[in-house]
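>> received
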Amino acid sequence: MQAIIAHLPIDPTKTTEYEAQFAANAALVYKSEPGCLLYQLSKDKKNPGSYTVLELYQDKTALKTHFKNMSQRPKGQPNYLTGKPTLIIMPVMGTPVFRKNVIANNGSNIAVVAKMSCKPNSSSKMLASYSPAAQGVQDQEPGTHLYAFGEDPKNLGSFYFMELYQDMKSVGKHSKMSHFKTMMKAQGPLMAGKPVIQIRTPVGKSHAKL
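>> returned
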């Protein structure tokens, strides 16, 4: 499975138009790309124009198909970007929690992107700490709808969590679970700095596959 975290700087005076355009393009992705498993727009309510797209793809072939289709989109669409997008493209490590039926029915109201900067050659240890935590999330956290993890291959040592939750209560529950605390204890010595956590609000349909 492949993941993309896309940070998009959008003209803050054109957010309504942008969200409508994204919804139309996302519907096309959903219809024409069976290998796209998740295509979720989210925004930072405190910073108008700051958007993040959480994406999951079945494999590298599906990822290539998506980029090919994006390059062939009809010309003439307005460009609402105010700067260059930032794309983190990475393989998903381990087995993610992906409650696609809940997500597809728009049950997720909170999105989280967490970046962890770690010491060199920490990939195997990070995965070893993540896997049991992911199983705990799967078994004990119905309000956690997405919990996916990976390392940026272009910036080794930069690890990311992509998360979707039912609500803030579910976010709070996650942080108090023993499997989460055990993971953080194991990851602590591997970190080269404090985690950077972004909390976002999902926008519109997720286009997750049922």
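>> The mean pLDDT is 93.
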